[in-house]
Amino acid sequence: MKKTILTTVILVAALFSVQAQRIKGSDTMLPLSQMAAEEFMKVNNSSNVTVTGGGSGVGITALLDGTTDLAQLSRKIKFDEKNKLKEKGKTVKEIIAAYDALAIVVHPSNKVTNLTREQLEGIFTGKIKNWKEVGGANIAIVPYSRETSSGTYEFFKESVLKKKNYMSGIMSMPATGAIIQSVSQTKGAIGYVGMAYLNKQVKPIHVSYDQGKTFVEPTVENAKNETYPIVRPLYYYYDAINESTVKPFIDYILSNEGQKIVSKIGFITVK
Amino acid sequence: MKQFRQTIERLVKVMLTISGSITSLAILLIIIFLFKEGFGLFNSPSVEKGYALCVNASNTIEELNSTQIKQIFDYEITNWNEINGNNEDIIPFYFDEIFSMYSEEEFGEDYVLLNEKLGEVIAQTPNIIAYIPEQYLPRENNSVKILPQKNIQITDFFGGKEWLPTATPAPLFGLLPLIMGTLWVSFFAILIALPLGMGVAIYMSELAGPRTRKLLKPAIELLAGIPSVVYGFFGLVVLVPLIQKALNLPVGETAFAGSLILAIMALPTIITIAEDAMRGTPRAMREASLALGANRWQTIYKVIVPYASSGIMAAVVLGIGRAIGETMAVLMVTGNAAVIPTSLFQSVRTIPATIAAELGEAPAGGAHYQSLFLLGCILFIITMVISASAEFISKRQHNKGV
Lengths: 271, 402
Fold this sequence. Notes:
The structure holds 2 protein chains of 2 kinds. By secondary structure, chain A is α/β, with parallel strands linked by helices. Chain A is 38% helix and 23% strand. A 4-stranded mixed sheet of chain B has the order 2-3-1-4. A two-stranded antiparallel sheet of chain B has the order 5-6. Chain A binds chain B through residues 54-55, 57-58, 61, 79-80, 83, 125, 139-140, 142, 147-149, 163-166, 168-174, 178, 181-182, 185-189, and chain B through 50, 70, 73-75, 94-96, 133, 162-168, 172, 177, 236-237, 240-241, 244, 250-253, 331-332, 335-339, 347, 349, 357-358, 360-361, 363-364.
């Protein structure tokens, strides 16, 4: 009997000594966390990191329920989310791990290369309906958006639409890949994706946030020197109590090797 | 020995009764849970929970409905006189803006002075409409008028034409585009699948030789085993561009693409059940028909199809059920635009796709979450009505035949 108890205690202790970490949240950050976790586990044999997506809101909910150690968010934590965490006695800490730039993409055959923020707002709120209104061919504009659960959706709404609502009949796609696919096969399409997802199937738009004085191409360099306007920080949030558990991973992602992964994925490094 | 067997039999009987009642109870509880969560929506405030709208006390506006609030914050209504107020421009104000007006220190420890500062801003700006958390409402300030909280109305939900569940400050939960989208896609799916499915079923049960049948049947059953996300991906990559090119449409993600995919997905169900029903026609009836001089074709449509009509009906119902409840494939190919469909070649949003796409993010217990449960209730009622009416029809036809 004594032996059994002893074994159980040892087993339980062994279980806890292995540093298991759970990361959950934004789908945008999924490739980053995944790759960083793999490399991190190679370096630290004893640790075990599991990464899951679901959306930025899901990450915060999981942090609230204590089902994750780190929440990855592609937007800043909302005021009432912070309040809710506070009510549960949790103080969150914030780490900016990388920057992400959103690229506006259109069909490769589209003649339009430059758009101002105001024009983009008009397009996505449904006030501008035809490409000829912004200097293109006489084709109806088909705006594609992400589903409401994505942080990208919120960020675009905040940055480009200045918090106005999208038009009510907007096409909404379940994933970034689906947006690329749809934009590449629809002549009048326009959509927004993380810069990491840009490829030859779609054409990136040069954006102006100063009423058309300067139009900036979405490239890593332009995002880094802060001339490209649609950039957002990518965050990790954790409960201050858990600091010792998550610290090694956070340190790793902010280290030179971690930041190498950041630029490999197509995000912009913090340093 | 006999007694022992009797006890065993009784025991089995009791166990079967228990398992039956537990299952029924579980289903009942699920339904109760569904409806309870769903109808909670009408107890939720029309402005996001925990938030309130306030205006300057000099403003003559007493009440605003959800659509008006949305239009104000979208700058579609820009003057108070458009909603029976003074002839002044509206200044919408979001809570976060306060943090750029004052420095962190001015709010004091733990933001104790936050509501005071908010009161100041509202008092100084006569045409403001401010959207702020309830806990920071400047209640003591006399020059601030807090607009009364109204609950979401049943008519807003069932008669609403806009589905904008995450619109701030006032989300819009309009059912019409979603329910029309669902019915629209499913209706055309069945319209496409039924003749095709019936054709294949008749061929397999009456015309095909045993060898062809042996090959065809597993192939069709295999179709039913393909996961719906694979159908969806196939639809998005192959069908959508094809439809767009062939019909020269601005977008390929249309109700038609959804109907086609659903038709393909419903085919195996329709074919297998209809075929089984037709093969169930007694040999005597076929032979009698042939003996009376009817040829093969006449036998099929005068004897076999009427005899199997109840089975065919069941096939149709299960096909419709599959089409209405199907989520993933539709989510990928219909474009999910929440508009009331007027043609087959425009993008639609269905109820299951909406639930699947939005439930992950909707905060548990909030209005958005409850509205998704209510959508589930509606889906449940639709399928129930369809299967009940189909049962009714097939029963009546059966009685007539006898």
